[in-house]
Amino acid sequence: RVTADDWDQWEHVKAHFDVSRDFAAANMIGATGLNGRSWPDLDMLPLGWLSNADSNEGPHRQCNLTIDEQKTQMTLWSMAKSPIMFGGDMRRLDSMTYGLITNPVLLEINSFSSNNHECSCLLSVDHRPPVALIK
């Protein structure tokens, strides 16, 4: 792993942006490693229902991230080509979470994209931010 534990708090997700940027800038995403290629493991995706089936200890609750924050996290993990490891309870998987972790576009980006890197843009309060569409 290349980060501290990730949990369902926006501050945890935000911390991964700089790590992802730095790995991309150093050309370490997909770089040849000791036994194959190197991928930055940003930790599990704590989405959906969070519990521990072998313990009475919590959290036993729905993910605290908003839907937009969950989408942002899954998108960042895909663009960083981090291993996609679902950290929720599969027995209680809701349709939104299922749709997110099986999104074919995000999984394709994670599997087949290259040269992923941060780009800068300046936004004006008078204009809508630019977006990119991936087909």
UniProtKB/TrEMBL annotation:
InterPro entries, alphabetized: Aldolase_TIM (IPR013785), GH (IPR017853), Glyco_hydro_27 (IPR002241)
Give the matching Pfam families: Melibiase_2
The keyword Hydrolase is assigned to this record: yes
- The highest taxon in the source lineage is Eukaryota
Tell me the keywords, alphabetical order.
Glycosidase, Hydrolase
UniProt EC number: 3.2.1.22
GO process terms (BP): carbohydrate metabolic process
PANTHER family named among the record's database cross-references? ALPHA-GALACTOSIDASE, ALPHA-GALACTOSIDASE/ALPHA-N-ACETYLGALACTOSAMINIDASE
**Entry's family note:** Belongs to the glycosyl hydrolase 27 family.
The molecule here is called Alpha-galactosidase
Q: What is the source species?
A: Opuntia streptacantha (Prickly pear cactus)
